[in-house]
Amino acid sequence: xxxxxxxxxxxxxxxxxxxxxxxxxxxxxxxxxxxxxxxxxxxxxxxxxxxxxxxxxxxxxxxxxxxxxxxxxxxxxxxxxxxxxxxxxxxxxxxxxxxxxxxxxxxxxxxxxxxxxxxxxxxxxxxxxxxxxxxxxxxxxxxxxxxxxxxxxxxxxxxxxxxxxxxxxxxxxxxxxxxxxxxxxxxxxxxxxxxxxxxxxxxxxxxxxxxxxxxxxxxxxxxxxxxxxxxxxxxxxx
Length: 238
Prior knowledge:
The chain is mostly helical and 238 residues long.
């Protein structure tokens, strides 16, 4: 099974059990909500104010954001549907880091997400004498393969494996909950079928038939997206 297919399977099984880089590094003070949130309906004034606060603040610096983007692109490589930037995966992780950087969340952003970047990057310095961003994709995959399976990981890599698992989960979640990720998943949602009336055999069983003029007016697939219009007397106009 291909790595991407494996990730799809993991994500789908988890369902039952249970933003571009530029946006994150926009200077504080500039309103970027319109750039990030494509769908803004249903937000209360409190939620909008809270979103503005987070969207106009910065947690990760530019280097950290680039590391996250590189990690995400290895976990979910670009394909015909798009890439992690199209899915706004980096923005999602940045937002979570800011949202959970509170005592109530044990400063998760600092103690887990930022720490994860430091610990993972140290592995590349130790093994290749250079930072993750300086490594090739093949070199990155060598390290990631060592920390991808927590059950078999060596004790000295257990912390890195745990932190990597956190990033992998966030990347996969960010991807498959985005529009491009849904296309990659093959999810269609509720799509109306083409309906051209009751089948002929059913009509015959009941000894009835459609009026030709009525059928031509009401079951015209070329107009299936048009809204019906009625006159004041309840007669169908279109």
